[in-house]
Amino acid sequence: MVATDAAVLIPLRSFDDAKTRLAGVLSPADRRRLAMAMAERVVRAARDLPVHVVSDDADVLRWA
Fold first, then answer.
1. N or C: which terminal CB in the chain sees fewer CB atoms within 10 Å?
2. CB under 8 Å to 22, separation ≥6 — which residues?
3. Within its chain, how far is the Cα of 37 from the centroid?
4. In this structure, which long-range contacts are made by residues 34-37, counting pairs with CB atoms below 8 Å and at least 24 apart in sequence?
5. CA angle, residues 14, 18, 19, in degrees to nearest 5
6. How open is the CA angle 20-35-13, to the nearest 5 degrees?
7. Residue 3 pLDDT greater than 60, yes or no
8. Contact between 18 and 31 (Cβ < 8 Å)
9. C-alpha dist (Å) from residue 55 to 1, 24, 49, 59
10. Is the predicted pLDDT of residue 5 greater than 90, yes or no?
11. pTM
12. Each residue of 41-55: pLDDT tens digit?
């Protein structure tokens, strides 16, 4: 496979609804920041390939 034949699809749910299992230890704002930071790391890690974010959340799509 040639690098140009590959792409990265990143499915993301709403940043506001992310990481709900951490609700007991992180505030909603902290969970949102964590989800965004993790998504940014994934995008940076895949920077050598075309990256496409898949989401039904308008806020996530604006971020992408």
1. N
2. 31, 34
3. 8
4. 36/63
5. 175
6. 70
7. no
8. yes
9. 27, 26, 19, 9
10. no
11. 0.83
12. 999 999 999 999 999
- Number of structural domains, the chain? 1
What is the spatial distance between Cα 50 and Cα 18, in angstroms, rounded to a whole number?
24
Share of the chain above pLDDT 70, in %: 94
Q: What is the C-alpha to C-alpha distance for residues 61 and 64, in angstroms, rounded to an integer?
A: 5
Domain interval for residue 23: 3-63
